[in-house]
Specification:
This protein is α/β, with parallel strands linked by helices. Helices cover 32% and strands 23% of the residues. It contains ten helices and 17 strands. It has a ten-stranded mixed sheet, sandwiched between helices. Strands 4-3-9-10 form a four-stranded mixed sheet. Helix 5 links the parallel strand 11 and strand 12. Helix 1 packs across helix 8 and helix 8 packs antiparallel against helix 9. It is globular, with a radius of gyration of 19 Å.
Length: 324
């Protein structure tokens, strides 16, 4: 494969939140019900959209008023052009991304059930991931904006060896800037990342893959494995759990939409709202309650583009129930 190149794309004057992860093309087929094996069904609707956990979270953070940048890799195919155009539309700085000539955009094939709102994903990836050398070059090239304005860095818990090296790079280049880490899935070597972030964000799938079904016990165990100040666990329709070091485990009640429409990206919305709340100086109980509310509102909407506008109209900034 030919040498990669930094993209020449939209640059923001100063970055407050830097997100590092993958971007995908999502081919979303809406079906009446999830099909049985070997079935042939007709899609009610189909859309091609930008996906990827970190880029989804950045889109929400941008809507919440933060100046955001994304660092990741792209191919040089039309799907990558779609991804870049969508990120520009949401004012996401992409100058730290790397484009691989001849590379193909990772693609997620998604069946979205109209009946339940559930999403089933088949993901295909054949593209190099971002390396610590890629990130170092990007930080060197944009040190003026990142050095002045960056107040938060968010990672996906994938490609553990390079991610750990990138965390150490950030600690050296941006001392004192909080780091968050999303642990969505159990990956080989992923546990080496747990000691380093300031905020750990777990999906429900992570402890379940470890055989842990008690969210409070799981979170309590993380205190022994990490130096994180906050640890948060999204638990689907049962709400979310979290702790701040030195405190008790909290439970925040879920927020269910009037009608379940689309759960795709709800976890990414939740993560964005947690980061937003902590950046605004909110205590964890209020942060969890607001994150549940925004994720619940999202489940009643298709996509992310107008999420915060709709949420604001629904009184998003109100408090919800959160108990120790």
């Amino acid at each position: 494969m030919a040498a990669q190149t930094m993209t020449n794309t939209q640059v923001s004057p100063a970055v407050t939140v830097l997100g590092i992860g993958i971007a995908t093309l999502d081919i979303v087929n809406q079906v009446q019900v999830y099909p049985a094996e070997d079935a042939e069904v007709r899609a009610l609707d189909q859309r091609l959209v930008r996906g990827g956990n970190t880029t989804n979270s950045l889109v929400v953070l941008s809507q919440l008023g933060h100046s955001c940048a994304w660092a990741g890799t792209l191919g040089d195919d039309p799907a990558s052009d779609l991804i870049l155009a969508d990120l520009r539309r949401h004012a996401i700085d992409t100058s730290l991304s790397v484009r691989h000539p001849g590379g193909r955009t990772p693609t997620s094939y998604i069946a979205l059930s109209q009946t339940t709102g559930s999403r089933t994903i088949v993901h295909h990836r054949d593209l190099a991931e971002l390396t610590v050398d890629d990130l170092a070059r990007g930080l060197d090239a944009h040190a003026d904006r990142l050095g002045r304005g960056c107040v938060w860095v968010h990672f996906e818990g994938r490609n553990p060896g390079e991610t750990l090296a990138m965390m150490h790079l950030i600690r050296g280049r941006l001392p004192g800037v909080p780091i968050s880490l999303e642990m969505e899935k159990l990956r080989p070597g992923g546990d080496q990342l747990l000691p380093w972030p300031d905020l750990l964000l777990f999906s429900r799938a992570y402890p379940l893959a470890l055989g842990a079904s008690d969210p409070e016990k799981f979170l309590a165990e993380q205190a022994e494995r990490s130096q994180a100040r906050h640890c948060v666990l999204a638990w689907g329709a049962q709400g979310s759990y979290g702790w701040t070091r030195g405190g008790a485990v909290l439970h925040a009640m879920p927020h269910a939409p009037q009608r379940l429409v689309d759960t795709l990206g709800a976890g990414d919305v939740f993560n964005a709202a947690v980061i937003d709340g902590l950046l605004r100086g909110q205590a964890l109980p209020e942060t969890l309650a607001r994150a549940n509310r925004l994720a619940g509102i999202k489940c009643g909407l298709q996509g992310l583009s107008e999420l915060v506008v709709a949420a604001t109209a629904a009184g998003f900034r109100g408090r919800s129930s959160c108990t120790a």
